[in-house]
Amino acid sequence: MVRIEAVNEQTLIVYFGDKIDEAIAADVNHAIFQIRQALGALITDIIPSYNSILVSFDLAQTDRFDIIKRIKFALSTQANTETDNSDNVLVEIPVYYGEDVALDLTDVCTKTGLDADAVIKLHSEREYRVYAIGFSPGFAYLGSLNDAIIMPRKSTPRLKVPTGSVGLADSQTAIYPSSTPGGWQIIGRTPLDMLDWDSETLARVNVGNRVKFCPIDKETYIKLGGVFDEL
Fold it and tell me: Keywords in UniProt for this one (predicted)?
C-alpha cells in the first residue's frame, strides 16, 4: 500500500514498501514515470530509492495537500500504462578482476571459502537491478548478490577508492564512478567512465536498468583505457 509523508513544505516521500524487493523496485520505477507524466512542471525534482520516491514540488504553483491528491490520483489511474522501458535496458560493464586492481579479492575469498574464479563467476553470471543512484554522482546501488558472496563493509574504510572500482557490500554491488573514500570490498575495476555529463542523471546507468558484469583480461582492460594505481 502506498504511503505519502511530508518532509517539509515542498517535499514529500512516497513509500511503496519497507524492504529491498524486485516487485517494489518495479513499482517505484513505474511510479516515477506516472508522476512525471501527470504532474509535469509542478515537480521540481524526483529522486527514487529502493522502496520510495522523494518528490519536490513548486510551492508557487501548488501546496502539499493538492500535490498529495494529485500523486494519489496519478498512481491509482490505469488509463495510461505506458512506461519509460528502463526496466528493459541492459547495460554490460566490462570488469578486470586481476589482483593488481582487485584490492580485497583475497579477503573475500578467505571469508567466503571460495577461490577467486568462483567469486568472479558468481559476481558476473547474474543481472543486477539498479535500485538507486546516490552517495556520489553516478554511484549506482545494484542488487542483489548471490548469497555465497554477500560481504560486510570494511571495518576501516579506505580514504581513496580508485575510480572504476567494483565492490561488494552486504547484498549489493556497485562501481565507484570517481575516486572517493569508501568501505566496499573491492574485487575488480572497469575501464569505462561511469559518469555521463550529457545525461540528466549524470550516470551511465539509471534506476530500473539491468547491469551485467563481463570479465575481461588485463590486455583488454588496457586497450579500453583502464589505468592502474601509482606506486
Answer: ATP-binding, Hydrolase, Nucleotide-binding
